[in-house]
Description:
The protein is built from ten helices and 15 strands. Helix content is 35%, strand content 21%. The protein has helices at residues 3-10, 14-17, 22-30, 70-83, 98-101, 118-130, 205-218, 240-262, 267-270, 288-299, and strands at residues 35-38, 43-47, 53-58, 61-65, 88-92, 111-117, 143-145, 150-154, 157-162, 174-177, 182-184, 190-191, 224-226, 229-230, 237-238. The strands form three sheets. The protein has a seven-stranded mixed β-sheet with strand order 1-2-3-4-5-6-7. The protein is of the alpha/beta class. It starts with a helix and ends with a helix. The protein is globular.
Amino acid sequence: MQRRSFLRNTGLTLAGLALLNKNSLASFLDDPAWNIKMLTKEIGIFTEKGGTIAFMVTKKGIVVVDAQFPDSVAHLIEELKKKSKKPFKFLINTHHHGDHTAGNIAFKGLAEHVIAHENSKANQLKSAAAQKLTADKFHIPDMTFGKDGWSTVLNKETIRAHYFGAGHTNGDSMIHFEKANIVHMGDLVFNRRHPYVDKNAGANIGNWIKVLEQATTTFDANTQFICGHAGTGYDVLVKADDLKAFGNYLGNVLKFTEKEIRLGKTKEQIIKATDIPGSPEWTGEGIERPLTAAYAELAIK
């Protein structure tokens, strides 16, 4: 729900709003900085800046998937505390990138456990070291899992983390709320937006396509998928067909790059392309990211 309706539903009074000056009040109501959308009675998504966050509020506790940045996730934490006095049981990271994990620090002393794939934890530690972050600036997982994944049951909802191999990084997991049939894909899906492909963290476009194929067979046509990012005018909520479309896009990135290499094009020439043949819906800035990664992948062969 947008902030305007969320105010009504959380009981913020006009007297409270009156404490804001006229300009800040207009900004607060007319241009909400963040958005909460409920998908079920218990499960919703939060968007502000960075990767999409999913959350579940139950009588047994709260679960959050991904954490954006400290300042943005603080807004979500505040609203969840209004909705429930129950503890934050789990914070789950889909992968290590800062726009999904920098906000982990806001859960230090709040969430009982932070969970991620073992490669995601390793990547978080490497990133913190590279940035020379002090301990008060990052909060790494205290529980990890490998290829067999992880699961728990909270208030009759089974939450399961799946790991199908390297894709966007070497540590991406999918978080499935099984009863609700909702899956947070993290950055394994960029809906009609050119993706970041982190080769330094083990990304592999060829295997990414296989990961998406496995997702479409693991889940079903009725599954609702949450993706980390979406292009302008597109939603972060997608269906199985959108996973297939993104997989096709990645395949077209490889086909185009391979063709250009065979024509003798340099990387610098290839990344100047303005579109990916066969995938016209992927437009806008950032095309050089997947093309650079595809060139690195194919030039080795």
